[in-house]
Design brief:
Elements (H helix, E strand, L loop, with lengths): L2 H28 L7 H4 L13 H15 L7 H11 L2 H34 L2
The structure holds zinc ion.
The site of zinc ion has 8 residues, from α5.
Length: 125
């Protein structure tokens, strides 16, 4: 394979990996079995009457509420990751990791596309 073919091949691989991770994430989210910590599972609906869905959703609500009580304007993804790791069930942790991996793969795909584009420009003229 030449350089261009290798890059195209990698894009195909990345797409397959993303698809696999998305499927896995969906299965994980469908099988949330709740936290071992009852406080974390909280009420069955939030303040907007939205039903409890899974640990990722609960973690989001927790961090959001915490942020509001501290009067902070930004959402802390570090705090979110900590909450998931400390309180989430195994399936939701898996779903969270899959999402992070998907993010990294998309970044890599962006770089590969950039490389292909650079080669394309060098072919001009
Ligand atoms: Zn869960």
């Amino acid at each position: 394979m030449n350089k261009l073919e290798k890059l195209a091949f990698r894009i195909g691989e990345i797409s397959n990996e993303i698809k696999k991770l998305k499927d896995q994430r969906e299965i994980n989210l469908e099988h949330c079995h709740g936290s071992e910590d009852e406080d974390f599972n909280g009420p069955s609906t939030n303040s907007d009457n939205v039903p409890f869905e899974n640990c990722l959703y609960n973690a989001y609500e927790w961090v959001k509420a915490d942020r509001e009580s501290d009067d902070e304007t930004y959402f802390s993804y570090t705090a979110f990751a900590d909450v998931i790791n400390d309180y989430g069930c195994a399936n939701c942790k898996g779903a969270y990791l899959a999402k992070r991996e998907i993010g990294l793969l998309k970044q890599e795909r962006g770089r590969v596309v950039g490389n292909i584009s650079t080669i394309g420009k060098s072919l001009k003229g």
